[in-house]
Write a structure and sequence with these properties.
The protein is about 35% helix and about 15% strand. With about 150 residues, it is α+β, with helices and mostly antiparallel strands.
């Protein structure tokens, strides 16, 4: 991957979360993602976070890199969901957490990875944990849940 460190990512980092989305809009986006995933043989990533979160924004930038985006598009439908206010209080779109059985968000970004049949395969903040601090390490974590091998 071209970007070796987070500092190598293009600036400014994206703000992927729609802070004004209503509960109904978020539910509709998630439902549509599962329909798209089923039609395309993909998995769904529900990306829980906030635009104030540097790790959340960095992950979005990594997923959007020219050498990563085709891989992401081939394997996943990603739905960013704003769940946390700036003081890290998990206080938005709580119905999403309940819907997918998330009792506590330990850190953001928190990714829920599910197959097209809505079976949760992962629900964790591991994509940016201590073992996943570089863009390549984040992509490697995502690749664990890919439906198709990298490059294929």
């Amino acid at each position: 991957m071209h970007a070796k460190t987070l500092a190598d990512l293009p600036r400014p980092l994206p703000k992927p979360y729609d802070e004004s989305a209503t509960d109904d809009q978020v539910k509709a986006r998630i439902d549509a993602a599962f329909v798209d995933a089923g039609a395309g043989g993909k998995r769904v990533i529900i990306d829980l976070g906030g635009n104030w979160c540097g790790w959340c924004r960095a992950l979005d930038a990594v997923m959007d890199q020219p050498e990563v985006k085709p891989f992401m598009d081939a394997n996943f439908v990603v739905v960013p969901v704003d769940v946390a206010s700036a003081d890290f209080k998990i206080d938005r779109n709580l119905a999403v957490l309940q819907r997918f059985g998330v009792s506590k968000v330990e850190g953001v970004p928190w990714l829920i990875v599910a197959d097209a049949d809505r079976k949760v395969l992962a629900s964790t903040d591991a994509v940016t944990d201590d073992a996943h601090q570089t863009p390549q390490q984040m992509v490697d974590w995502l690749a664990l849940y890919a439906t198709k091998p990298a490059g294929g």
